[in-house]
Hints:
The chain has helices spanning 2-14, 65-84, 251-263, 265-275; strands at residues 24-25, 28-36, 47-55, 59-64, 90-93, 103-107, 112-119, 121-127, 135-143, 146-155, 158-165, 183-189, 194-203, 239-240, 247-248, 292-295. By secondary structure, the protein is α+β, with helices and mostly antiparallel strands. The longest helix is centred in the N-terminal third of the chain and has 20 residues, at 65-84. The relative contact order is 0.21.
Amino acid sequence: xxxxxxxxxxxxxxxxxxxxxxxxxxxxxxxxxxxxxxxxxxxxxxxxxxxxxxxxxxxxxxxxxxxxxxxxxxxxxxxxxxxxxxxxxxxxxxxxxxxxxxxxxxxxxxxxxxxxxxxxxxxxxxxxxxxxxxxxxxxxxxxxxxxxxxxxxxxxxxxxxxxxxxxxxxxxxxxxxxxxxxxxxxxxxxxxxxxxxxxxxxxxxxxxxxxxxxxxxxxxxxxxxxxxxxxxxxxxxxxxxxxxxxxxxxxxxxxxxxxxxxxxxxxxxxxxxxxxxxxxxxxxxxxxxxxxxxxxxxxxxxxxxxxxxxxxxx
Length: 314
């Protein structure tokens, strides 16, 4: 019964198209060590994660580097299974420690910010584009050979100190921080509860895709592979673009879906499969292949009494 109740929600949302924003090619990849004191009763054990900012001329996307590496390992595993011809049953569990599913897209040319959330499918939520009243000081420093200048500003209930590099003329930065005349290289709030520490920068070198490899769930030899239900359709990991198969929704609708998943993970998966027209399969070109078994944990999440976005004091 729960599956039947969830199905109309998926059927309604899946008909909505992604928000049209002009794609951009990433020129650089900036690495950050993200630290967040989620639980103020355990300040000695903050949450940490490796994050990246893919930066193009007019757009950027901030996401988990750990998640990207995890997906690359999964693709490699499935590609090796396909090539070996050993098509035994495969089991996958969603989620994992220190993995953020959220991706934040900034489109500076149109002052748009879109958050991509993952619940098997990709959901797109448009957030207000930040208007941070930065105060730029004359203080400078060098961070890994990058000449940086100091700025301070208030955003989402916190006072931030940011170091930006005028020599990298991109008005973006980690998470939702943006709007300075140069890439934000490092930032932290004044309590050091939230820290984006610079961990390197690399230039994007375009390489030709392997036509024999699995790319986001689709092979080039006539077979189709879905790594996860509702895998994004973007085949280029360095392209900054919202997935065309993303489902536009609101925060309220997404919260309802997340609560439904929390209450009954298996019913949620079955409903999502029904909404996408069937199960998840690892298929040969002739359509044969074993069923992939997916399980979603309903283990309670971590204690968060100090969210990154705080309510503004009245």
